[in-house]
Amino acid sequence: MARLQKLLLLLGLVLNAQAMGNAAQDNQQIIANTLITTEAHDRPNVVFILTDDQDLHLDSLSYMPYLKQHLLDQGTFFRRHYCTIALCCPSRVSLWTGKAAHNTNVTDVNPPYGGYPKFVSQGLNEAWLPVWLQEAGYNTYYTGKLFNAHTVENYDAPFPKGFTRSSFLLDPFTYQYLNSTFQTDKDAPVSYEGNYSTDVLASKAYDFLEDAVSEKKPFFLTIASNAPHSNVAFKQDWFGGNASGDTIITSPPIPAERHKDLFKDEIVPRTPNFNPDKASGVSWIAGLPKQSQNNVDFNDHFYRNRLRALQAVDEIIDGVIKRLDEYGILDNTYIFYSSDNGYHIGQHRLQPGKECGFEEDINIPLIVRGPGVPKGKVSDIVTTHTDLAPTFLSLVHGKLRADFDGAVIPLDAPGLDEAQVTRHEHVNVEYWGFALSEGDYGQRWFDNNTYKALRVIGRGYSLYYSVWCSGEHQLYDLINDPYEINNLYPTNHSAIFTFEQVNSGKSASAKLGTLISRLDSLLLVLKTCKARECTHPWEVLHPSGNVQNLYDALDSRFDDFYELQQERVSFSKCEKGYILESEGPIGAKAYSIEEIGVRGGHLWHELV
């Protein structure tokens, strides 16, 4: 009623103005501005804090007190959130476009298969979130790292589209904590040598936030820190299509001076997969030597500096929250916190780095607080980076695109409860090309780190399955083997695999080969999926709709279809990028025999 009265009052002003000659135009402009301000106040703002290479499984969140105070305690933690490719640039492109890497065709950090030039050449500079946000009526602000190979040479070729204001970290200085270069709006790049890069980032973020509030228009602000990424010095050939271990020098991240003495006794968590006595994994990982004590000591130092580097990010969280509160808009602002990919240090004998499909690399932080978001909640629904662009657009009442490969993440209590039952249970994971060992020890560069993989998390099962370009396979049961040590694929496929608590406290079982055939067919769909195929892959395999998840697919009626009729995921060649003709069978067959009867039947062998 109050709003209606206000609108009627404004309408009266318009009518009076029409009778007052030349004064009419001024009054009409006042009315228009008032209406815009009212609408802006009703639409939420969004702040997205994005870190670089931040782990979830090495417990980094526990060392960020402001994150706990302002985000974990006041919002929802999505602990089954995943990146779909564990590498900076392609992961970020998937995040901002809502598309899997095999659909963006940005699969590396540098040309010819990745980096900012590849992003532009694929036409994505005209079709990504900031452009869509502006179309939805939002002002857009961005400061920090955007993409790899976004450099002091190509920053204006062209400028990234879709930003009201921007200030980007540029290569080759992106990862130099004490020698950063930022490029603001359409200005030339400016060096901040000697200044701590995260503090420079904070200053720019606060300035943009002040600008955004003064515009009296809803806004989307991204703050993208380079922490806790390793400190990196590049040789010029790194950006010339000749990247190798000889063209990059990595060292532990550098903390701010005020944080350099923190956490003196902290060490990498000594989980069962940390520097194990027996090698694990496949391909080049299976040949890694056990790390020496000197190696482990150095990696503990590397870990401590990651925690220290995150303290300046934690301070940004506090600074942003306090300013939003002072501006009176905290209650109408969503704050998202995530990272582009995860990180490993010592697990499976790996030197510091990412690029693998292990849980440390792909399962990453996602925390959200804002209007209607449950406080202090931990959600187990499966989400991925391809879900973020649709989620952001839904929050701002923008138009969702039919070609999104992700699905909107529910953020209120009823939606989260419903998603526990209805949301998909899978994550599509993919990778092409190199793996890099960071730090002082071990071989620095590994080729043929190309694989297709998936995570499936449902009632009674939590599985990781991958197929490598070398022909090797991995299958881990993360309920009984959460650290992914025991690869089940090479074992007897006639052995019985048991699912726990799938039906009213009962267990169920199936032959390992039966399980693998279903996982492989699901991966066959996902590795080239588009749009709805990516969120509803079982519809491709079972168009009649009577299979909704892995549990349904294990029905014995489908054994012949999966084990004999369906092609298997494979590669004909190890490539450095997405070369479709080298990736084996394309597209899965659909189950075409008339599917009659109740869902289930059931199945395999149930045990009380």
Explain what this protein looks like in three dimensions.
It catalyses: an aryl sulfate + H2O = a phenol + sulfate + H(+). One of its GO terms (biological process) is phenol-containing compound metabolic process. With 608 residues, the protein is α/β, with parallel strands linked by helices. The protein folds into 3 domains: 2-40, no CATH class; 45-426, Alkaline Phosphatase, subunit A (3-Layer(aba) Sandwich), CATH 3.40.720; 450-607, no CATH class. 30% of the residues lie in helices and 18% in strands. It contains 17 helices and 23 strands. It has a 10-stranded mixed beta sheet with strand order 7-6-5-4-8-1-11-12-2-13, with helices on both faces. A 4-stranded antiparallel beta sheet has the order 15-18-19-20, with helices on one face. Strands 21-22-23 form a 3-stranded antiparallel beta sheet. The radius of gyration is 25 Å and the shape is globular. The protein starts with a helix and ends with a strand.
Provide a concise account of the structure shown:
The chain is of the alpha/beta class. It has helices spanning about 1-20, 25-40, 65-70, 90-95, 100-105, 115-120, 130-135, 195-215, 295-325, 360, 390-395, 415-420, 510-525, 530-535, 535-540, 550-555, 560-565; strands spanning about 45-50, 75-80, 80, 140-145, 165-170, 180-185, 190-195, 220-225, 230-235, 250, 335-340, 365-370, 375-380, 385, 425-430, 435, 445, 450-460, 460-470, 475, 495-505, 505-510, 605.
